[in-house]
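Running low. Invent one:
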Amino acid sequence: MTKADLAEIYRRYIGCLNAQDWQSLGRFVAEDAEHNGRPFGLAGYRTMLEQDFRQIPDLQFHVALLLADPPHIAARLAFDCSPKGMFLGLPVDGRRVSFTENVFYEFRGAKIARVWSVIDKAAIESQLYSVNVTETAHRTHER
């Protein structure tokens, strides 16, 4: 498989996620897929994504950087969304936050077999802290 072919498969996979086309997920993810060293399988992978979209109703995956070196993909995904309640252990509570995810994929044929993912939680923390400082300063100034 060429770099261009693998990159195109990956972009179609991202399109599948953004459309929440769970019936087509098996076209892109192997039955025995692993995520961060845990055997999820296709069903577990789908459950994880469905939960992500329940927690973040406006979730959209944006490819900021994509490198293909078959059978691997390296991507930096950008998010600008409003998670409900707690997100990654942080009290986001519907506030809009922007963050990235650095993710590596290993493909077996045309399907994702292994995923390693790291989300930039510090970016979210800094936004929440900045909002809290601004709100506190504003309330203090009003007194």
